[in-house]
Amino acid sequence: MTTGPRVAIVGSLHYDIMVRTPSLPRTGETLMGQAWWWKPGGKGGNQAMAAVRHGAAAAMIGCLGDDGFGARLRARLEAAGVDLRHIRTVEQGSGMSVALQQADGDYAAVVVSGANRDLDEAQVRASVEAITGAGVLLLQNEVAASANVVAARLARGAGVTVVHNAAPARTAGALAELVDILVVNTIEAEQLGATPVEDLASAALAAASLRGATSSVVVTAGGAGVAAATADGVIELPPHPVGEPKTHGAGDTFVGALAARLAAGESLADALRYANAAAALHVGAGDDERAHLGPADVEGLLTGPESAST
Fold it and tell me: Fewest 10 Å CB contacts: which of 92, 135, 200, 278?
């Protein structure tokens, strides 16, 4: 476990099988892939590891299966410095996904929830100390909505900032009034009722339209940058140039880095600036390099020669 500003994550853990392919297959088509490898995944696990890389002490609350996938995931999370004391092992297969990554860096994935379905309200309540002792609680939509609501109520009662990455998109219900910062990408923004996002300006409009009961909304717009709508106004951050982007995991890196900086006491504007740079470094790096990117790299990008134009 690492030390630093504390972030609690209630979310999913998946064993991701990555397949490199020249293109995505059509229905009924068989393609010959070029390579495959595995990596730890699930939005919860990915964001926990990203939070650690960017300076936080991250406590993960989730479920793993009693199988080889679960054992490998547990070992990788532990090596990354994530606090695993609130991960429960259950008697069914671990969550997993298969992601097809094209030559241009874009991807498509199929997820099987498996053990993540067993994350329930009782387990969340049993992890109350991790939640109420954190500076930020991170939630996503790959686990039961009821678990998220219980976690958010515990956090709100203790004055903990609640960040909800609404991915995949679904109706917020009772969670809406318990969230301080909502983070969505362009597709999720549209699915939640915003107008289509085509550029940074329309991302800002989408963020403003989704505010509702949530005090701040962030829309990540990929190559167009990041926009946020808050009670104090709109924040627009253009993208950092990336040569050959590989987008898989960029959103989770952004959210984990954002949570780490918020837990450290930074303003939302400063945390967004940091997270935007962290995501840019992620998409421009190879898998081996990504695990070693941290605050020094982000600060180098933000203060380097290109920062004046980004």
Answer: 92
For residue 252, indicate whether it is catalytic. Answer: yes
Q: Which residues contact 248 (CB under 8 A, 6 or more apart)?
A: 18, 99, 101, 105, 107
Structure tokens at 21: 């392919």
pLDDT in tens, 70-97: 999 999 999 999 999 999 999 999 999 9
Could you tell me if 244 and 105 are in contact, meaning their C-beta atoms sit under 8 angstroms apart?
yes
Describe the crossing of helices 43-53 and 68-79 by its angle, rounded to 10 degrees. 20
Per-residue pLDDT at 309: 40
**pLDDT (tens digit per residue) in 136-180:** 999 999 999 999 999 999 999 999 999 999 999 998 899 999 999
Q: What is the pTM of this model?
A: 0.91
